[in-house]
Design a protein that fits this description.
This protein is of the alpha/beta class. Helices cover 39% and strands 25% of the residues. The protein is built from five helices and seven strands, in the order E-H-E-H-E-E-E-H-E-H-E-H. Helix 2 runs parallel beside helix 3 and helix 3 (65-75) packs parallel to helix 4 (90-98). It is globular, with a radius of gyration of 13 Å. 38% of the residues are buried.
Length: 130
């Protein structure tokens, strides 16, 4: 049996964070290693728990997901960061990709659109936008 993909969820809206945690926790190939509501907490948890994938909100109370992605990738170079955002503008997408994000998903996606990218092994998919 393959080792589960370790996922860190970074989302400041509690209902969405808990929903992602529940949905991903049901997926047999995914292990949720933490949930963080802020950029600072995300960086701390990434350093401590070395996730394979970070599902990250773009707008956080203490900074942007792009800023957090850059800091996390400096600490955990092989991590894949997938930005989740209600903002579908090109500016946010370009900032995320420039910071090293592996993907960018709209929050309007069905949960199945999130689970698939979260379970992809790091390094196997390039930046994509849905």
């Amino acid at each position: 049996m393959a080792k589960p993909v370790r996922v860190l969820i970074v989302e400041d809206h509690r209902v969405l964070a808990e929903g992602l945690d529940l949905a991903l926790g049901r997926h047999p190939d995914v292990e949720v290693v933490g949930v963080a509501p802020t950029k600072a907490e995300a960086v701390r948890l990434a350093r401590e728990r070395t996730p394979d994938v970070v599902l990250m909100d773009y707008h956080l109370p203490d900074g942007s997901g792009a800023e957090a992605a850059s800091e996390i990738r400096a600490l955990v170079p092989n991590v894949a960061v997938v930005i989740l955002s209600a903002d579908t503008g090109d500016e946010a997408l370009l900032a995320a990709v420039s910071a090293g994000a592996s993907g960018y998903l709209a929050k309007s996606e069905a949960i199945s659109g999130v689970v698939g990218p979260a379970s992809v092994a790091p390094g196997t998919a390039g930046p994509r936008r849905r």
